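Thread amino acids onto this structure.
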């Protein structure tokens, strides 16, 4: 496991491959490093937490552990949608902090060359562009690679003990 963490931190060479979990939010496709993903669950009841940031949907009970759940639609200022049978909660771990990410659907696991991941275009800098690690072209699809560390780095609403502020 220590070796996997080192790969994550080392600069990637062009011939290295990353395993990514791809998911959808609306019409856009995103991905995160598979090394961060612990499990993927069907949407379940989420308990709201008073005074939590808007993007914290609430908490779930995951085999006795209370896990906060972040709604990426809210975090990215996208219109919310009704949950359906495709909705999933991806449980991820970032630097020892475990939390769920609410997504519309999980599409696949991809293997991409690190050389195929391009930096995001600097067309319109906005508050959400810092959460994008890069963009990968997979066939005719563009997949946005999220930087989970930055997504949670400024996050005062989710703490590593699994509680929300």
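Threaded sequence (165 positions):
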């Amino acid at each position: 496991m220590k070796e996997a963490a080192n790969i994550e931190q080392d600069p990637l060479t062009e011939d290295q491959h990353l395993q990514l979990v791809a998911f959808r939010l609306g019409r856009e496709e995103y991905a995160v490093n598979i090394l961060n993903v612990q499990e993927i669950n069907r949407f379940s009841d989420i308990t709201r937490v008073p005074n939590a940031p808007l993007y914290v949907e609430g908490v779930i009970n995951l085999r006795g552990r209370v896990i906060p759940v972040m709604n990426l639609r809210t975090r990215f200022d996208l219109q919310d949608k009704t949950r359906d049978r495709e909705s999933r909660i991806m449980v991820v771990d970032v630097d020892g902090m475990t939390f769920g990410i609410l997504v519309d659907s999980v599409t696949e696991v991809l293997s991409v060359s690190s050389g195929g991941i391009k930096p995001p275009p600097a067309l319109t800098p906005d508050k959400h562009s810092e959460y994008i690690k890069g963009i990968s072209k997979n066939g005719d699809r563009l997949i946005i690679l999220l930087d989970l560390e930055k997504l949670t780095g400024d996050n005062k609403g989710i703490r590593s003990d699994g509680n929300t502020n």
